Write the C-alpha cells for this entry.
Amino acid sequence: MIPREFFVTSGKAFSPVSKLNAFDLALKDAGIAQCNLVKVSSILPPNCKEVKPRALPVGSIIHAVVSRMDGEESTTISAGLAWSYEKNGSYGLVAEAYGYMDEKTIRDTLHKRIENMAKARNITIGDIKYKIETLRVPLGNYGCTIAVLVYLP
C-alpha cells in the first residue's frame, strides 16, 4: 500500500479523570477520535499530495505519523510535526517532537530533526511545514497534545 494523499491535523485537551481521557479528547479535537491509529515512521511517498483534513468513516484503520505528549497539572506540553519534500520532489520526510517545551523550543527541535534526517539521506529538502500544539495543563487535570499526519489510501 502506497498512499496517494495525506492530511495533517492536531488537537489538545485536558481531563480531570486520566491521561487516557485527555488523549481521547485530544483525538476528538483533531477530528480523528472515531478512527483506529496504526503508527508508522517518517517517509512521505513520491507523488503523495497534501489535502485538507476530512472526516473518515467510523472505525477506519488509518496509518499515521503520530506525535503525542501527555502531562500533568501545571506543566507545559507540546507535540509537533515537521514535513518537507526533497527539492526534486521525489519523496519527503516527517519529523516528530514532543516534550515539556514551549512552541518556540519545539519548532526549533523539529527544524533540527528534519534537517538531520535530510543530511543522513544526503538530500536537500524544500520548504518545511509545521503543525504544533502546546498546552499549559490546568490544576487538577491531565493534559495531552497531539499532531498527526494521516495517510489516505
Observations:
- The chain has a mean pLDDT of 97.
- The radius of gyration is 16 Å.
